[in-house]
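Entry 14. Ran structure prediction on the chain below.
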Amino acid sequence: MYLTTKELADYLDMSEQSILNLIYQNKIRAVHDGSQYLINKEQFNQHLKQVEKMKQLLEEWKNEPIPESVDVKDED
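Output, structure tokens:
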């Protein structure tokens, strides 16, 4: 199933111009049928899941404590 830029904008609660800008920047893959851009909904949803997963992994990595260096000498 394909979505138009207007439908995707409504789906993401964004402006249609923002969606078009992302398409022009190649951040959203779309097909131009001669009069409008169409976005594959399944492919887009899969991409969103991957982005969310990467954000979660990055957040986990940021929150991981820094291990003590083995080179630190005990002064006692």
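The longest helix spans residues 41-63. Will compare against last week's run tomorrow.
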